[in-house]
Write the C-alpha cells for this entry.
Amino acid sequence: MSASLASSATNTSTNALTDLKEYLSADIGQVDACMLKMAGSYVPLVSDLSKYTMFAGGKRLRPLLCLAAARLCGYQGDAHIDLAASVECMHTATLLHDDVVDGSLMRRGRATANDQWGNKESVLVGDFLLGRAFDLMKAARSLQVYEILSHASMVISEGEVLQLTVQGDLSVPRETYFKVVEAKTSVLFAAACQVGAVIADAGDKKIEALRQYGYYLGMAFQIIDDTLDYAADVNALGKRIGDDFREGKVTLPLLIAYETASQEDQAFWQRTITKGEQTESDIITAIELIKHTGAVEASMAVANQFIEKARDSLTLFDHSELKDKLIAVLDFVIRRSF
C-alpha cells in the first residue's frame, strides 16, 4: 500500500468509524461511564490496571456493534448499554491475557499492562474484568443473551489454545487458520450484534442476519489485522510490525507466501517459523517475501469476500441512516491501515 493510498484509506476509515460513534454518541457515552464504574475496586491496582487498558484509545468497535444492532432493530430500553459494556470488558480481558501469552510490550501505541505491572497482575485483572462482563449480562434478563455471550467466552479461549497448538506449523491447512480467526475474533463480533438484536425482540431472521454481519465482519477484521502485521506503517498500527512473525504465528499471508515460495524461500520460513531460529534482519526478509509473493493482495482479497458477505446480510433491513453507517463500517475494515 502506497503512502498516499494508506493516508486516503486511513481518512476514509476513520471518518466512517467516527460517524458511527457520533450517531451513537449518547449511548457510547453511557457505555464508557458504565465501564469506568465497572473498573472500580477496593484494590487500587485492579482499578488502575483496568482503567489503563480499557481507556487506552481502542476503536470500541464491538460495543458500537452491539449498540447499533439494538438501535437498528428499534430497541427503546437501556439494557444495551450494559451489554455493550459487557462485550468490551470481555474483549479487554482477552487483550490482557493475549499480551501475557504473546509477551507483547506495546499495544495501541503504548506499553502493555503486563509490561507496566507484570504478567501475574495482568492475568488476574483480566479474570476480574471477565467476571465484571458476566455481572453486566444480567441487565438483559435473558437466558438467551447469557447463553450467547458465555458461549463466545468459551470459544475465544478455545481459539487461543488452538492457535498455540499450531504455532510454527507451516503445514496447517487454511481451514484451521480460519477456525482460529473465528474463535479469536469473529465469535465476539457476532455475539455483540446478536445480543443487540435479541433484546430488541427482532425475530429469528433479523437476529441471524445481524449475527452473520458481525461474524463476517470479524473474519475480515482479523485477516486484515494479520496482513497489516507485515504491511502496515508502524506509526499507524500502534505496535511493532512483524510481531506475528517473531512469535511464530501462522497467519494467512504467511501460509500464502509459503505455498508459493521457492525451495530456498521455504527453507527460510522453516528456519524462522518452524524452528524459531531468527536474527534481527530476518523480519526484513520476511516482509519482502510476503510482498513479493503477492500474499498481501491475496489475503486482502479473501478479507473482501467476507466483507461482501457481511454487506449482503444487511439486505433484510430497510434503508436507514444507521444501516448506511453499518455498511460504511465495512469499508472501514477493508481499507483500514491501523
